[in-house]
Amino acid sequence: MALPEWQWLYGKPAIRGQLKASPEDFVVIEDLGYEADGEGEHLLVRIRKTGCNTRFVADALAKFAGIHPRDVSFAGMKDRHAVTEQTLCLRLPGKETPDFSSFTLEGCEILHLARHKRKLRTGALAGNAFRLVLRHISDRAALEERLLRVQTGGAPNYFGQQRFGFQGNNLEQAKRWANDEIRVRERNKRSFLLSAARSWMFNQVVSDRLTQQGSLTQAIPGDALQLTGRGSWFVAAAEELPQLQTRIDNNELRITAPLPGSGEWGSRDAALAFEQQSLADSPAFIQLLERERVEAARRAMLVIPRDLRWNWADDATLELSFWLPAGSFATSIVRELFELEGNEADITE
């Protein structure tokens, strides 16, 4: 299924460049945001991997430790074609910590072990730090200008290509499932397809907002506003807009878009009407999410990378580093900088 060309915050870039010429060009370091307890029935295993996906490593660790694969959890998937550090969690009630000195898996290295009281659950991380090498940049001066704009104004918080599968395959299957053309029984696959459907709808609302307003920081009555860096949100009443707009301009608040599902979307008035109009052509997806009892949620439309820094190795090669909160995609930042060539797979969810 072909994906639409979602709108850019600063206009479609004319610059060209390459991302991920090799796995070493894309380094991701997961930030859980806390330290291990040092005791408990769970074992946190910090790994560095290249050329293997997270689920594959989890299954190998489970086999080595003699536990069921379902007793290995992690906060988020990390891409195969990158160098990534992340933590996996092994549930070992009443068991000693295995001796991992003999554990071998090509492309995977164990960095640290620590006991913890609580299971590591999906999404339970603060964010990810990225170190990228961008190659074959066609226009250094133009890229510098866009870097400065992204540094202060951020980028649309789009879900990246990975969420939709190769050539939009996850989205196409979700569409067929929604139209009762196929049945999906496997739990993980159901989760992937449902996620693809509502991620697409989120992106569509953000893109339409940009198309109509040219901004992701101009509030309208009924917008659901999120405290920056927090999950909680509240609805903007019309009479409060001037005061709230000041807080948005000061980066204290972010305007959100819906992750549709069962229950109310959270917005009201003009904002809700806009979102419903934007997704008027998506009734099958909305009905699927309601039928599968996926709870509606909200997500900030804008993401501003923290500690964004860059250094030119030469006029066509840029070394870029930044930190993003959990759930944000590095390629959504890079997408605002230049038109991607080569491997465009995303790294993290």
Task: Give me a quick take on this structure.
By secondary structure, the protein is an alpha+beta fold. It is built from 8 helices and 16 strands.
**CATH uppermost class of the largest domain:** Alpha Beta
| CATH topology descriptor of the largest domain | Pseudouridine synthase
The profile of the biggest β sheet is:
10 strands, mixed
Distance between the termini: 21 Å
Note the beta-strand portion.
Answer: 25-35%
Q: What is the CATH superfamily of the largest domain?
A: TruD, insertion domain
> Which whole number gives the mean pLDDT?
94
InterPro entries: PsdUridine_synth_cat_dom_sf, PsdUridine_synth_TruD, PsdUridine_synth_TruD_CS, PsdUridine_synth_TruD_insert, TruD_catalytic, TruD_insert_sf, TruD_pseudoU_synthase
Domain TRUD: 154-303
Enzyme class: isomerase
Active site: 79 (nucleophile)
How would you explain this protein's 3D organization?
Strand 9 and strand 10 form a beta hairpin. The protein is α+β, with helices and mostly antiparallel strands and 349 residues long. The chain is globular. It has three domains: 16-25 and 127-149 and 305-347, TruD, catalytic domain (Pseudouridine synthase, 2-Layer Sandwich), CATH 3.30.2350.20; 34-116, Pseudouridine synthase, CATH 3.30.2350; 155-303, Pseudouridine synthase. Helix content is 28%, strand content 26%. The chain starts with 15 loop residues before the first strand and ends in an 8-residue tail after the last strand. Strands 1, 2, 3, 4, 5, 6, 7, 14, 15 and 16 form a ten-stranded mixed beta sheet that branches. Helix 3 crosses helix 4 and helix 3 (169-178) packs across helix 7 (283-291). It has helices spanning 54-65, 140-153, 169-178, 187-213, 241-249, 269-278, 283-291, 330-337, and strands at 16-19, 26-31, 42-50, 72-74, 83-91, 108-116, 127-135, 155-156, 224-227, 233-235, 253-259, 297-300, 302-303, 306-314, 317-325, 339-341. It has eight helices and 16 strands. Residues 343-349 have low confidence and may be disordered.
